[in-house]
């Protein structure tokens, strides 16, 4: 199972919006609404930010939103804040009863 | 609140077996609505899903193809924990290993991570 494709880095100024893409195949992202997104500041464990494409766990700000079209899922962060600077990873359930992660995207808040 | 506490050695010799344990509080390893996963992270491989165990009237395991011949994940209902065993390790297995709870196709609670170095 190949990793999902994410851009290595994105950046934005405080208050702006950024979108991180996550491209898979018809065997994973395209098959199910089972995409999740994780935030990982340096030296910490990943934290769930979005599940089932667009649902936010309790406590995650509504500045974080998710969507999907075909084989590509997206995470949008609006009203960017300094505390959002971290690595972001997408993940998808696959038709082999496994999970696959993206390569990660480093978000820099300018 | 679910908490996962990992334990196990941080150094393993090549060709030996890597063994880690994840103790669960706030949930049950036998819950029939969640799964229990192992993931690892290294600079060269990024985040890599390794496998999971789940209970649905009986136990089921799913493993990543990349480690399927070497991995075992076992639940321990008496201690409410689950374990990872990875056989025949090489330096490429050096990584931070995480356990996590799976619910609604996502990983909502994670352990603290354990750096495992494979070296003689």
Properties at a glance:
heterodimer; A: 110 residues; mainly beta; six-stranded mixed β-sheet; three-stranded antiparallel β-sheet; B: 120 residues; 0% helix; globular
What would you note in describing this structure?
The complex is a heterodimer of chains A (110) and B (120). Chain A is mostly beta strands and 110 residues long. Helix content of chain A is 0%, strand content 44%. Chain A has no helices and 9 strands. In chain A, strands 1, 3, 4, 7, 8 and 9 form a 6-stranded mixed beta sheet that branches. A 3-stranded antiparallel beta sheet of chain A has the order 2-6-5, with no helix packed on it. The radius of gyration of chain A is 13 Å and the shape is globular. Chain B is an all-beta fold. In chain B, the strands form 2 sheets. In chain B, strands 2, 4, 5, 6, 9, 10 and 11 form a 7-stranded mixed beta sheet that branches. Chain B has a 4-stranded antiparallel beta sheet with strand order 1-3-8-7, with no helix packed on it. The radius of gyration of chain B is 14 Å and the shape is globular. The relative contact order of chain B is 0.32. Chain B has no helices and 11 strands. Chain B is 0% helix and 57% strand. Chains A and B meet through strand 7 and strand 8 of A and strand 5 and strand 10 of B.
**Structural class assignment of chain A:** mainly beta
Would you list the SSEs of chain B in sequence order as H and E?
Answer: EEEEEEEEEEE
For the secondary structure, the number of strands of chain B is: 11
Biggest sheet of chain A: strands, sense, closure?
6 strands, mixed
Major sheet of chain B: 7 strands, mixed
Could you name the ranges of chain B where pLDDT drops below 50 across 5 or more consecutive residues?
none
Task: Please tell me the overall pLDDT of chain B.
Answer: 97
Kindly report how far apart the N and C termini of chain B lie.
39 Å
> What percentage of the residues of chain B does DSSP assign to strands (E)?
over 45%
**Helical content band of chain B:** under 10%
The chain pair forming the largest interface, with residue counts per chain, is:
A-B, 26 and 21 residues
Gyration radius of chain A (Cα, Å) is: 13 Å
Helix content of chain A: under 10%
Briefly note the structural class of the backbone of chain B: mainly beta
How far is the N terminus from the C terminus of chain A? 35 Å
